[in-house]
């Protein structure tokens, strides 16, 4: 029997946010998609620029409140939806990212 649907939230984040110089290694836009350890460095950090003062970029205690998750919505509370150059992530992908954030 195949295993239950197991998601890898960081893999989804890295594939959609860590490419094209956006949020991966060497980016000046935040490197939370470069590695899990890099993402941990954003736990509790406040959003910047258009998202300043709206909460933590990554909030393991309340993943849906994370700015990172909110930016994946069609109408985020600040700035543009992400990924900027691609289609919106599916609800299942966002749920998986939230699950991953909750595990940090």
User: Would you count the extended β strands for me?
Assistant: 0
Give the C-alpha Rg.
13 Å
- Main sheet: strands, sense, barrel: none
How many independent structural domains? 1
Mean pLDDT: 87
Give the CA-CA distance, first to last residue: 29 Å
**Unreliable sequence segments:** none
> What is the count of helical runs?
4
Shape: globular
- Residues in helix, %: 25-40%
Order of helices and strands: HHHH
Class derived from helix and strand content: mainly alpha
Content of β-strand: under 5%
Structure commentary:
The protein has 104 residues and is mostly helical. It has one domain. The protein contains four helices and no strands. Helix 1 packs across helix 4 (91-103). The radius of gyration is 13 Å and the shape is globular. It starts with 8 loop residues before the first helix and ends with a helix. The model has no long low-confidence stretch (mean pLDDT 87).
């Amino acid at each position: 029997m195949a295993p239950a649907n197991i998601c890898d939230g960081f893999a989804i984040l890295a594939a959609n946010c860590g490419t094209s110089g956006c949020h991966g290694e060497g980016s000046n836009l935040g490197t939370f998609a470069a590695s899990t350890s890099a993402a941990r460095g954003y736990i509790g950090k406040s959003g910047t620029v258009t998202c300043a003062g709206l909460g933590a970029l990554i909030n393991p205690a309340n993943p849906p409140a994370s700015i990172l998750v909110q930016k994946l919505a069609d109408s985020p509370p600040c700035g543009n939806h992400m990924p900027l150059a691609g289609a919106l992530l599916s609800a299942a992908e966002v749920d998986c990212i939230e699950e991953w954030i909750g595990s940090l």
